[in-house]
Amino acid sequence: MGSSNTASAGKKLSGTVKGYIILALLVVLSWLVFKIATPSNFGSPSNMLSYLEASLIAAVGAVGFYFVMVMGMFDFSIGANIVLSAIIGCKLATQFGLGYPGLILGCAATGALVGLLNGTFYVTLRIPSMIVTTGLALIYEAVANIISGKETLPTNMMAFGKMPGNLILAVVAFIIAYLILNYTKIGTYTYAIGSNEFVAKNMGINVNKYKVLAFVISGAFLGIMAVLTISYGSSMVAVTGMASMSRNFVPTMGCFFGMAFKKYGIPLQAIIIGEFVINIIFYGFIALGAPTAIQDVITGLALLIIITLTTRVAKGEIVK
Amino acid sequence: MSEVRLQVQNLCKTFGITKAVQNVSFNINKGEVHALIGENGSGKSTLTNMLTGIYSIDSGTFILDGKEIHPRNQVEANKEGVSIIVQELGTLDGLTVAENIFLGHEDMFVKFGIKNTNAMNRRATELLHQYGFDKIKASDPIENYNFEDRKLVEIVKATYFNPKIVVIDETTTALSQEGREELYKHMNRIRAEGNTVIFISHDLPEILDKSDTITILRDGVYIDTIKSADVDEDGLKKLMVGREVSGAYYRADYGEKISDEVVLSVKNVTVPGLIKNVNFDLHKGEILGFGGLSESGMHEIGKAIFGASYDREGSVTLADGTQINDIPTAIKHSIAYTSKDRDNESIVMNQSIGDNIVLPSLDDLANSAHLLSDKKLKEFANKFAVEMSVKMVNTDQFVSDLSGGNKQKVVLARWIGKDSDIVVLDSPTRGIDIKVKQDIYQLMDQMRKNGKSIIMISEELMELIGMCDRILIMKDGELNGELDRSPELNENLLISKMV
User: Do the chains contact at A8 and B98, CB–CB below 8 Å?
Assistant: First the structure.
């Protein structure tokens, strides 16, 4: 909200501070648990920096996805969007010789287009966003696979896979998301539609237009996430059969942090720090040498605990 | 003073088979507080919702200062000079106070696509100061404030741009005396500036005290427009209700003794913030009515008995000593409940008529292996749908296709099918037409004669008087009087205990 930077809001400020304290505690706690368990190969300052770098990737996608989630909609095509955007962006950058501009604009534009399709199908067909995006995810995966089975970035185009390139791109993306949320009508209408669509409509807000726009914004940010993803891993395989769904998890989890900390007025900040916490836990398990199955069980439980503790549901309120 | 501001001409609006507003025409003048009164469902809110763009108009016109207006939403209505303060909460969570005040009008603070939050907050702060609401901070999230303060924000939102007409729709019932005084102050200011207030309230003394002119609606039809100075409370009531209690419509019997057998005993029931220390007994074969203002707590009584209230204290006990503390126990022990909010709390909208009717009876209909027979379910549903004369193609039809009255019949068919001994009906005839009302009254009378006990909670005083053996009146969450069935019973007696 626009007031998050306003010092005059007494109650709000204390809420904001409280939110930051909880987030800081989560960071310290998750670090401490693994530091005690495995002191030698976890949690040094340089380790922490690399966890932060890794968390930037999903955080960029999550701040965009937040616009969709606040309106009460969902997107199961996050992974498929990243795959398709990365394939097209990489192709434009390499085969078409467009270099970095081709990579960034190609990924962002493809992501935005995917968002436009998601939003348009959703408002036109009038079926739940979860179903629309699941159906479309299959199509996006197939399209990516038809275009190319696998794309690899040449070594001289990996600037966004390491410092400071990745940090700069992520920070620019965060600033843009922050500006849209706090300093444009889009941000206000996003919250208004999420709060009560009927009232928002009565205020003359073109609800469908802003829903589509939310998907476009989300898609564009997922496109930027695709840039970071392919730069970090150097290649992207165009998987099919919904295998891209596994990429949905981390950005979605970060977005849950944003939703939980909305009441403190720091949703985007919570997404960024939340993704960091998720990565600390993830790398903590790797340092412990825990089997993947155990890692998944504990990560899942940690998510449930964090969100339960930070979300207060009123008595009688229906949770779906 | 008598210059016409708004002409309402031949206005009509229907919802399904319900004619909410029928060919209504009257004028509203400049510089007056013009009250709209009528019983629930008389069409007051429907009319003002059309004026403010919340509902579309079926036919007819609004002419504002000589110009026909067709607002499609509240912002368009605002641009025509019409605004509204609604009955329920009209502000949105997730936005600040300032964002709520200027929702839909942000463009005055946007340059090159960027919203100047500071300028918006400054302007909102100025307005809040001007209205004397300095305790409310423009940049705070609206969730920081209670219902009453949020209503004050709505006053600013609805009036800061000096509209020609401000509709105040049953806002005062939700406000404390202090909040009311604040609202009255602004109503007077608007009138003094030569503008118009359309004031909707159920509080007749308030209507007589605060308004200059009163228009009465009944069942969607225009009845009369009179000067407040020319009428008293009794006169208003007569105009509002208009119809006599007839034997054919309600129960005709008087003087029957209620059974001494107590089937349900409610002791010291309290639900924090809603009802306080309520005690009563329900007898076999009795229709026990609950009356009061909408916010008196009477609607919570039904939930409390059915085990659906949160944080309920005290006890609800059946004749055999069973304590009712949750819904499954209530249903198991033959208690039925229909909510006032039919569409959200009683009916499963996206299911068929059949599915809705069999819902609480599935355990009874299952065979010894806990399997359900489709044929048996269909026969069961059909039997009770036909018994209740639900207007339908067959029981596979979706409930969402039915009119309000027929939905209510489906709800009742469900509980008749369950053969419940204690039936709690909250506003059973709300929003439904005269014919279905009569069917429901006859059904209640038959159930009573069959030894069933009924609790009827209603905002319609005439149906309480016409149907109940005893009427308990609620006020501010507490019982405030008991009236026995009698031909002499009239609305004034009830109202005197309600307000």
Answer: no
The minimal CB distance from A2 to the residues B54, B99, B144 is found for B99
Looking at the domain covering A44-307, what would its CATH class be?
A: mainly alpha
**Which residues in chain B are closer than 8 Å to A183, comparing Cβ atoms?**
114-115, 117
For residue B7, list its beta bridge partners. B27, B63
Cα–Cα distance list, B144 to A113, A263, B96, B121, B172 (Å): 39, 10, 9, 16, 22
CB proximity B6 to A under 8 Å: no
Q: B343 at the A interface (CB within 8 A)?
A: no
Is B298 within 8 Å of B474 (Cβ atoms)? yes
Among all residues of chain A, which has the CA nearest to that of B79? A204
Answer yes or no: is the ipTM higher than 0.85. no
Domain ranges of chain B: 4-241, 262-498
Q: What is the mean pLDDT of chain A?
A: 88
Chain A residues with CB under 8 Å of B120 CB are 2
What is the bridge-based pairing of β-strands B82-85 and B165-169?
Answer: parallel
Q: Which residue has the higher pLDDT, B238 or B91?
A: B91
The predicted pLDDT at position B246 comes to 41
The CATH number of B4-241 is: 3.40.50.300
- pLDDT tens digits for range B266-282: 999 999 889 999 999 99
Q: pLDDT class for B404, splitting at 50, 70, 90?
A: confident
Interface check A2 vs B, CB under 8 A: yes
In the block, residue with structure tokens 């002119």: B213
B262-498: what CATH class?
alpha beta
Cβ separation B114–A187 shorter than 8 A: no
**Cα distance between residue A193 and residue A205, in whole Å:** 9
- Output the pLDDT for position B83: 93
